[in-house]
Inverse folding.
């Protein structure tokens, strides 16, 4: 069995709204090499190379008994107290403020998760272009070590929609999630000033998932940029700009500005 999806984020510059994309195509056995055995609560997940906000993705968390599960969650966190879906999905949470912001503080304390990814996309504004409509060059970022997955720090919530819908006529609770971001490291900074929080050691993975015994101060210390040498990056085709496009070709290296 393979669990495959690729993780992509689109952020815009400081002071402007973030948006995103992502993917995953690693073998399930590789994921379990890092997190151990897990309980799956959903059917097989097909490979995807261009996941967009509100899409459903595999998410790793610990249940009440401390067992690790992989659940199907919607990307775009909805706080448990929200009376309706937000107009803009909360796909990212700034690690510097997540512990105190009303939308994230409960999940930061009690409902942390990991989002596995083979890599992610980031869009770089091309220098020397018209300021009114600058084109953006997409880049694919993944672990420098071949076939090593990324584990992105996330938060999750269980939300009850007050109104039944055609897609959820029984009004079952919906699991949603968001990805934490931090300041960019030296590799990422020429592309963007933010990046996802990437946990790189077994100890950090276990600490992040442990919502029963770890103090918040210890959790907050994990929310920093990963080492510069942990990642590698290359330019990819602007075909990834269309969220309906989903192909392994999207992660292939191209000449910049194509």
């Amino acid at each position: 069995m393979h669990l495959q999806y690729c993780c992509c984020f689109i952020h815009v510059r400081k002071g402007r709204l973030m948006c995103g994309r992502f993917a995953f195509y690693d073998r399930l056995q590789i994921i379990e090499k890092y997190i151990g055995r897990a309980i799956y609560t959903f059917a097989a997940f097909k490979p995807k190379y261009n996941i967009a906000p509100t899409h459903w993705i595999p998410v790793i968390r610990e249940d009440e008994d401390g067992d690790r599960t992989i659940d199907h969650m919607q990307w775009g966190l909805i706080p448990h107290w929200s009376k309706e879906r937000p107009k803009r999905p909360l796909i990212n949470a700034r690690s510097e403020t997540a512990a105190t912001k009303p939308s994230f503080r409960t999940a930061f304390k009690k409902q942390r998760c990991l989002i596995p990814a083979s890599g992610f996309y980031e869009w770089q504004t091309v220098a020397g272009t018209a300021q009114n409509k600058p084109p953006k060059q997409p880049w694919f970022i993944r672990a420098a070590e071949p076939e090593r997955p990324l584990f992105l720090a996330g938060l999750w919530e269980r939300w009850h929609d007050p109104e039944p819908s055609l897609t959820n006529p029984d009004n079952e609770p919906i699991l949603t999630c968001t990805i934490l971001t931090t300041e960019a490291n030296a590799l990422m900074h020429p592309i963007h000033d933010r990046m996802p929080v990437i946990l790189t050691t077994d100890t950090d993975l276990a600490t992040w998932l442990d919502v029963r015994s770890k103090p918040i101060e210890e959790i907050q210390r994990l929310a920093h940029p990963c080492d510069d040498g942990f990642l590698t990056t290359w330019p990819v085709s602007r075909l990834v700009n269309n969220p309906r496009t989903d192909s392994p070709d999207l992660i292939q290296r191209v000449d910049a500005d194509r």
In short: The two ends are 35 Å apart (CA to CA).
